[in-house]
Amino acid sequence: MKILGTGSALPKMTLTNDMLTQYFDTSDAWISSRTGIKQRQVMSDEHLEDLAAEASRHALENAGLTATDLDFIICSNVLDEFISPPLGCRVQSLIGAQCPSINMNGACAGFIFALNTAEAYIKSGIAKHILVLAAEMPTRMVDWTERGTAVLFGDGAGAMVVGEGSQLKAVHLATKSAIDCLYQKQFINSTPFDIQEANKKSALQMEGREVFKLAVSSAMKDIQALMTEFKLESKDIQHYILHQANTRILDSICLNLKEDKSKFHQNIQRTGNTSSASIPILMDELNREGKLKEGDRLILSAFGAGFSTGTCLLQW
Ligand code: ACO
Questions:
Q1: E strands within 64-181?
Q2: What are the angstrom distances between the C-alpha of 13 and each of 19, 96, 155?
Q3: Is 283 helix (H, G, I), strand (E, B) or coil?
Q4: What are phi and psi of 164, to 5 degrees?
Q5: Which residue is closest in CA terms to ligand 1's atom 51?
Q6: Which domains are seen in the chain, by residue range?
Q7: Ligand 1 pocket, 115 CB below 6 A?
Q8: Over the stretch 159-205, which tens digit does the pLDDT of each residue have?
């Protein structure tokens, strides 16, 4: 599989750390030092499908293709205004594609799971051109009176058009059951037959320190496994493009791998944590800035609720 084009879209409203002090007791110093985040883009009057469609159009344009060239759409998404039809179907309609579309929810690792599915579809000949996108609005998942989680997130969408090629060398996916440290339940209607009380609406629940440890240990394990499998050393990898969860998580993985910090790309300072959209958004920025050179090896690694992780090796 090969990446033919990338695209991204962020909401227009910028929310700085200083602006957050109007909503709860916090400070730019606390947020910056604990997370690296200085500001994030937050959805106001926008709809997620419009951001997702914008990112998709950019990816198609970058690939030199049109929506009717697509054979499949795979959309990674956690929260959406609609439960049904899924986001990918509405994006299909907005961009004028005629192909089937499915949604995948692999939490923050969802984009890597979606890429893996796309590769299987391409390898098997089911599809030739696939739009793989991730669109997320985690700022609508948190309780805005809870400073511990509300400061972490931003909204956005990232997309790639993929096709036949040999750029993707390997993907490692894993799920280790660890549900209590990161989850959100949704409201479900009750019936006359409920044995237990139906779920009430709830916000994202997170054990920050546990998530930190799991993120660092699982990303390290996955990255090292790929490097061993392909007999790669530090000098063979030019770019690490990791889920933008938190600067301290990224710094810790970088330090443990004894890697050069400049290879660990970050945009979390501007975007916050955009869940599964973070990797394709960052990839699009690097691609458009011309930072990915032919032959460069890239490691993409994402981790999130489940606890699910996805890591892959690409050669540009
Ligand atoms: N502003 C100011 N003070 C705060 C804030 C805030 N926004 N949030 C918490 N505090 C306070 C707490 O109340 C606490 O005060 P106390 O000591 O008086 O009780 C103090 O800061 C320390 O709180 P902790 O929650 O223990 O802070 P910690 O040092 O663990 O940092 C953080 C919290 C940043 C969430 C950290 O645990 C972390 O980085 N975890 C990783 C989680 C993560 O990145 N999640 C992203 C989403 S999941 C994903 O994408 C996979």
A1: 72-76, 101-104, 130-136, 156-163, 168-178
A2: 12, 27, 10
A3: helix
A4: -70, 145
A5: 304
A6: 2-165 (3.40.47.10), 170-315 (3.40.47.10)
A7: no
A8: 999 999 999 999 999 999 999 999 999 888 888 887 777 667 789 99
C-beta of 303 in contact with ligand 1 (< 6 A): yes
Q: How wide is the angle at C-alpha 59 spanned by C-alphas 39 and 4, nearest 5°?
A: 125
Give the helix, strand, coil percentages of the chain, each rounded to 5.
Answer: 40, 25, 35
Ligand 1 atom with least separation from CA of 35: 34
The Cα 224–Cα 211 span in angstroms is 20
Tokens of 137: 């609005």
Q: Which tens digit of pLDDT belongs to each residue from 19-77?
A: 999 999 999 999 999 999 999 999 999 999 999 999 999 999 999 999 999 999 999 99
Atom number, ligand 1, closest to the C-alpha of residue 147? 7
Report which of 245, 11, 307 is spatially closest to residue 135, judged by C-alpha positions: 11
Q: What's the pLDDT score for residue 198? A: 66
Instruction: Choose, from 62, 116, 273, 287, the residue flagged as catalytic.
Output: 273
34 Cα: distance to centroid of ligand 1 (angstroms):
7
With beta carbons less than 8 A apart as the criterion, state whether 209 and 268 touch: no
Residue 243 a catalytic site member: yes
Angle between helices 278-288 and 110-123 (to 10 degrees): 70
Ligand 1 pocket, 310 CB below 6 A? no
Predicted TM-score (pTM) of the model is: 0.96
pLDDT on residue 195: 73
Q: Is 152 in the pocket of ligand 1 (CB under 6 A)?
A: yes
Catalytic residue among 108, 129, 239, 312: 108
Given 243, 246, 265, 312, which residue is catalytic?
A: 243
Q: Are 285 and 8 in contact (CB under 8 A)?
A: yes
Mean pLDDT of 77-88: 97
